[in-house]
Amino acid sequence: MESEKFKICVSQNLVAQALSAQQTLEKTKIGVLDAARLVKELSELGHTRKLNRLRTIFRLGCEVAARERKTPSFDLAYDYFLKSKNHLRTRTLQDYRQIRSVLLRTFPEIFPLRVRSISVALCGEIINSAFHTLRQRRKARAVLHAFFGYCVRHGWCRENPMSATDLPMLREREIVPLTLPEIATLFRSAADLRLTDCVPALALMLFAGIRPREIERLYWSDIDPEERVISISPTHSKTGGSRHVSILPVLGKILFAQFACSNTKICPPNWQRKWAKIRSDAGWNTPENPWRQDVLRHTFASYHLKFFKNLPQLQCEMGHASPRLLRTRYLSMRGVTFAAAERFWQGEGIF
User: Fold this and answer.
1) Which domain holds residue 106?
2) What is the pLDDT of residues 44-73, one digit of tens each?
3) How large is the angle between the packed helices 90-106 and 120-130, nearest 10 degrees?
4) C-alpha separations of 232 from 28, 37, 210, 244 in Å
């Protein structure tokens, strides 16, 4: 009799618990079967039957899910990133926008993804598939690394997935500086085309090693005829540092013959179009004879070291933090004789 009463009491208690559990589940809109499966999965994940452990796992999972919901999409996050970079130079912003355009064309599926869900593997696939040359891949990796770093600082992702991707290695190619006849042809083309207003910029790239983008930012006021130096300010420099570049006699002869008002830029209006026209007239910019990137800067470095034999001075003039970069990417001694370097610094074929 007592046994029967006990069974009835236990049954009533179980029914009461089942009804209470059902009422609780009704508030969450989770079915009994789904709840049982969830508990089983949590139990297997925690390797324990202790409810406190399961509650901790569930709570942490909910926090991750909440953060995931708060994380913006790649598309929206990149818009925020661009707005935060409005203080940068126009050309730099163009590079950032160009990377976005390439991704939109080749990997549109990444744009609706939450930033937190983008993996290292996906980043590696994007770099290797969307960008075709090593320089493009290195630039894209640098831009996207900055983007994800911005996202980490805003709490949109825990780690920067680009940090774990392999840095594309550049294969160093032999530097081929311009020959004296090729240099003379460039200046002759500028004269024949009546584009002599382009000559100071051309001379600064060739006889001072100033970068093309730095040239576009220079004013005549940056040239000091008394000190015979060109001041490259941090706002004009590619690396953000300032430096003085010496005006050697051949360069001074060209610059001071056309010295202009200090508040005007050295590059004339429509500089890019005019400069391309000069190169084309000189026989460059063709499939058979493409213009080599930074060839004027390479030419300056090679002839400077051959003639002056002063690597630290050359490094200072070019604005490099390390001589290693200068040695591996900017210098070529093959075919550069001392006699040719001497004629280079005399401006042979130009005057």
Assistant:
1) 74-164
2) 655 555 666 656 655 555 555 555 556 899
3) 100
4) 66, 68, 9, 6
